[in-house]
Amino acid sequence: MAKQPWKAWHEVVKIRKDLEKGDLPLHLFAADLYEVMMQNGKRPIYENADEFFALTYPTHNLRGLVRDVVLRLAGKNDKAVRQLELNYGRGKTHTLITMRHLVHDPAKLPAVPAVAEFVGHIGQDPPKTRVAALCFDKVDVETGCDVRSPDGSVRRLREPWSLLAYQIAGDEGLKLLHAQKKAEERNTPPAENVLSDLLSLPLKDGMGTLILLDEVLLYAKVRVHSEPGWLEMLTAFFQYLTQAAAKVERCCIVASLLSSEPKDQADKLGKNIVSALNDIFQRQREEAVQPVEKDDVAEVLRRRLFDPDSIQHKGTWPTHIIAALKGINALDEQTAKKGAAAEERYQKSYPFHPELTEVFYSKWSSGIERFQKTRGVLRTFALALRESVKWDESPLVGPAVFLSAPKSQGLSQPTRCYQMARTTCGKMGTRADA
Fold first, then answer.
1. Contacts of 367 (CB under 8 A, 6+ apart)
2. C-beta separation of 417 from 380 below 8 A
């Protein structure tokens, strides 16, 4: 049998060691801002800046957003409120974590390409910044959640303004909000002037203030159900907060207001909350940002699924791409006619077939609304690559990796995961086009 004129994709790039065995649970692929803020050691791949930036691809839009935010924290622009224009599966939490790591302790940032790309685009080193995050998916409406103060102390608080104040200045922050100057919670949202004083406290230590907001909608729905009239409290808080951030030097808010579950904003209450929150943020915000676009997908997948060393040698890829295109051109006249343009397209997506990454973006990332967002797709890809490396001789990662090995019976594990997602979608009445 004649030797094939190309190398199989897995001879050129190698799957990450941590994906080669085990069940690959969904949480392995789920970014968690709260765990990053708490630094409890539960999710080192996200909590540790070295590991995190090894997986991070600085997309064009993400670099631009980072630049605007960091320059605001350095006192060099007026862009105080930024809103992420996405709700699920497009990198919102990863974006917020990127912000936190870049400015929390910039002197200790790892010397890796992603960091160099961010810093180069910013045009200066990120300034050390006090970072507070309101991770609303972790805030129980009855008991609140634990948060850390700047000195590392942990306290459980309930109200959003209390959670913010404690992260910015510990007990002193709570006293600043309290009429009797007690380190206790207050029941009503503090007005703009009080919040301005709070947000200004880090300036005394030569730092700016970065506020990250995530998963607001689901929390708001639950609390409004249990406390009628509470939406007015929340909107008042956000109005005061955004106004204060715009007036305080070196202060910036980056907000992801929507829920990870599209159904949360589909009903009447969800729509009312989204409308109310957007009205508040649109008064102060700059243009909304979508950090990940279609052309970014292949690099995002490469960094998350393949060993970093094996994807650094992009200069060797054209040889493999040209060999693959010879076979493709013989079967596909349209691709053959595109010539250099086809080579460029395949270069951008290698080792993935470009049609596959486009399906990932246009169908899986947005069409299957309950497919556990991007984490579900990443897990499916990881399972498929891990199994197909044993038998696939194709030059590119294509649809075949989701099939069973030759002569095997039944569906492959990644295909079963995908089918289960479709079945779940169907039972719940959500759209599941493929």
1. 431, 432, 433, 434
2. yes
The phi, psi pair for 410, rounded to 5°, reads 85, 180
Alpha helix positions (H), 39-159:
44-47, 49-55, 60-73, 92-104, 113-122
Helical H segments across 189-282, by residue range: 192-200, 216-226, 230-247, 268-282
Which residue type sits at 309?
Answer: D
- Indicate the length of the chain as a whole number: 434
Strand partners, 131: 210
Cα-trace Rg, the chain: 24
Helix (H, G, I), strand (E, B) or coil at 253: strand
Q: Sort strands 145-148 and 154-157 into parallel, antiparallel or unpaired.
A: antiparallel
- Residues 95, 364: Cα–Cα separation, whole Å: 20
Q: Which amino acid is at 428?
A: M
* pTM reported for the whole predicted model: 0.77
The alpha carbon of residue 267 and the mean position of all alpha carbons in its chain are separated, in whole angstroms, by 25
pLDDT in 10s for each residue of the chain, 434 residues: 445 667 889 999 999 888 887 767 666 677 899 999 999 998 888 999 999 998 898 988 899 999 999 999 999 999 999 988 654 445 788 999 999 999 999 999 999 999 999 999 999 999 999 999 999 999 999 999 999 999 999 999 999 999 999 999 999 999 999 999 999 999 999 999 999 999 999 999 999 999 999 988 889 989 998 898 899 999 999 999 999 999 999 999 999 876 555 555 557 888 888 888 888 887 765 566 667 777 788 888 888 888 888 888 788 888 888 888 888 777 777 777 777 888 888 888 899 998 888 877 775 545 444 434 566 777 888 888 888 888 989 989 988 888 888 877 655 665 555 554 444 333 333 333 33
